[in-house]
């Protein structure tokens, strides 16, 4: 089938490679024509996914009309902050699949990416894709699994068939909120895990931090419509393990940099977006207005946005009032 991927970063390119290896014709859209031209000329995304050759089935483009023409569905893999603007510039599309792991705070409320999509393209069917999927490993053909969630079971099954293959197993779920929030919230916990690594606090501390972080994810996610079991699946616990542990994880690596003295300004000079930083800001804004407690998220926010000493902040987490698990 014809499929479009919006976003020629590491994850968008990996998805295009995965689809093309399964025999699909993939339009890989970049907002920068110079990047699309370089991909076409070299058949490699040297900036975001070095060492992985683009199969012949991948067609780099930089115009919206050429990207989505005839597409059975459109995968969106742009930064969360750019989703609304990108979709506003697209011709009418029948189905969108979000591969974006983030949330936004706007108009006084927290918005998931699928909700932004429905506002930007009210006539389109919507699904979300999430799981422990490090782009480079997926592009190299290493085994991985993911979950696609949609209220439209036929769309979820179509995406499952398109993406599934010998090295990529795809499950389906009706829990859109849970799958989305699991993928977004684990990035904040991965930042915290990276800070623990940067401070060399040891494996005991990191394990405790991630266990309580998962509890924070479950508490927040179920309060916002997700099913508790979803957070113990691929898009919750699974993605948390990969993102908090792997040296390939940009969120974990960013946390380590913060612990060693980097600032937000230092991070923003990089080429790749660290979604956990923006999700942390959105959750902090929500918590400040709602009065709800998100202790680990708040600790990460203090380090990233206020410049507090990460060791002191993590020590304060340890000194919180004792209570039952």
TrEMBL record:
Localization: Cytoplasm
Keywords tagged on the record: Cytoplasm, Lipid biosynthesis, Lipid metabolism, NAD, NADP, Nucleotide-binding, Oxidoreductase, Phospholipid biosynthesis, Phospholipid metabolism
Pathway this chain belongs to: Membrane lipid metabolism; glycerophospholipid metabolism
Keyword NADP among UniProt keywords: yes
An annotated GO BP: glycerol-3-phosphate catabolic process
One CC-aspect GO term: cytosol
Binding site for NAD(+): 7-12, 135, 250
NCBIfam families: PRK00094.1-2, PRK00094.1-4
Keyword Cytoplasm set for record: yes
Residues annotated for substrate binding in this entry: 101, 250-251
HAMAP family registered for this protein in UniProt: NAD_Glyc3P_dehydrog (MF_00394)
Name used for this protein in its record: Glycerol-3-phosphate dehydrogenase [NAD(P)+]
Residues involved in sn-glycerol 3-phosphate binding: 101, 131, 186, 239, 249-251
GO MF annotation terms: glycerol-3-phosphate dehydrogenase (NAD+) activity; glycerol-3-phosphate dehydrogenase (NADP+) activity; NAD binding
UniProt cross-references to Pfam families, sorted A to Z: NAD_Gly3P_dh_C, NAD_Gly3P_dh_N
Principal location: cytoplasm
Domain Glycerol-3-phosphate dehydrogenase NAD-dependent C-terminal: 175-314
Gene transcribed to yield this protein: gpsA
Family to which this protein belongs: Belongs to the NAD-dependent glycerol-3-phosphate dehydrogenase family.
Organism: Oceanithermus profundus (strain DSM 14977 / NBRC 100410 / VKM B-2274 / 506)
InterPro entries xrefs: 6-PGluconate_DH-like_C_sf, 6PGD_dom2, G3P_DH_NAD-dep, G3P_DH_NAD-dep_C, G3P_DH_NAD-dep_N, NAD(P)-bd_dom_sf
Record domain Glycerol-3-phosphate dehydrogenase NAD-dependent N-terminal: where: 2-155
Active-site residues from the entry: 186
Binding site for NADPH: 11, 31-32, 48, 101, 135, 250, 273, 275
Chemical reaction(s) catalysed: sn-glycerol 3-phosphate + NAD(+) = dihydroxyacetone phosphate + NADH + H(+); sn-glycerol 3-phosphate + NADP(+) = dihydroxyacetone phosphate + NADPH + H(+)
Stated role: Catalyzes the reduction of the glycolytic intermediate dihydroxyacetone phosphate (DHAP) to sn-glycerol 3-phosphate (G3P), the key precursor for phospholipid synthesis.
